[in-house]
Write a structure and sequence with these properties.
Layout lengths: L13 H15 L3 E6 L1 H4 L10 E7 L5 H11 L11 E7 H4 L10 E5 L6 E3 L8 H13 L1 E5 L2 H4 L5 H17 L5 H17 L5 H11 L4 H11 L11 H21 L1
Parallel strand pairs: 2-3
Antiparallel strand pairs: 1-2, 1-6, 3-4, 4-5
Helix pairs in contact: 1-3, 5-7, 7-8, 7-11, 8-9, 8-10, 8-11, 9-10
């Protein structure tokens, strides 16, 4: 099985990702098709102490269900100590990823690590699908291969309809403020707005720079969000809730306009 070139990954997480690949290969054997990083690692925006490690895995649908549970046990922190804020791992069957979908569709959604509420979910039927649709779009554009087959050989991009539906749901979720840091709400909004303009996923801080430059009315809020994002999660700066909500309403309008034009 092909393995990634370690220098292409952030040095703080290379040994961890290598061990994750080894453990996954040991559990899944020939059923393992591909492992790739998404999120901040894929977009070259990983910040140690702030970012999660986001990993997607594609397996043959013939992988026995007990092996999926064994995989979760093998990778759960602290059985495999996570050096980042947390690991967000999603495992899909290759039959699901072969076609575009607006569903969550996973075999396993594992959240684990020192700063994440633990979760090991094996049933995607009740999941909020927008997280997974957006991650698959980012993966198709920029997924960083860790092992196995190239990303675009095992993953199909979401349709524009499904993607804009997911973006709208994401903005609504971040507008509630529940469970999300204010800086991350703003930066995710920047990234969504820039995607609507360009059709490309940018790192959060580059997307923020683009919005701060083009939208003077939001510049101070966006710059404050970037300043906060540079700090550890536990030291995030307060941002004015009303201004955050106004900004996200503006982002929602951009998503709606882009969806109509698509």
């Amino acid at each position: 099985m092909h393995h990634a070139d370690p220098p292409s990954l952030p040095e703080e997480v290379r040994p961890y990702l290598d061990e994750l690949v080894q453990r996954s290969t040991a559990v899944c054997g020939p059923h393992l098709r591909s492992i790739f990083a998404v999120g901040s690692i894929a977009l070259d925006d990983y910040r140690h102490g702030r970012s999660d490690i986001d990993v997607t895995m594609v397996v043959d649908p013939t992988l026995p269900a007990p092996a999926v549970h064994e995989l979760a046990e093998s990778l759960t922190h602290p059985t495999l100590p996570c050096p980042a804020a947390g690991l967000e791992l999603v495992v899909y069957g290759s039959d699901f990823t072969a076609s575009p979908s607006g569903n969550a569709g996973y075999l396993l959604n594992l959240n684990t690590g020192p700063m994440l509420p633990p979760c090991a979910d094996f049933d995607s039927s009740g999941a909020q699908s927008f997280w997974y649709v957006i991650d698959r779009s980012i993966a198709y554009q920029s997924g960083r291969l860790l092992a196995g087959e190239p990303v675009r050989q095992v993953l199909t991009a979401p349709t524009q309809h499904d993607l804009f539906t997911a973006l709208a749901a994401s903005v609504r979720e971040h507008s509630t403020a529940e469970g999300h840091l204010n800086d991350n709400r703003v930066l995710n909004g920047c990234r969504s707005a820039v995607f609507c303009r360009t059709g490309r996923w940018l790192p959060k801080r580059k997307a923020a720079q683009s919005i701060a430059t083009s939208e003077a009315g939001f510049r101070s809020l966006v710059e404050a969000a970037v300043q906060s994002f540079e700090r550890p999660r536990s030291a995030a700066l307060p941002l004015p809730t009303a201004e955050v909500r106004t900004f996200l309403n503006w982002v929602a309008e951009r998503v709606a306009d882009a969806a109509k034009a698509a």
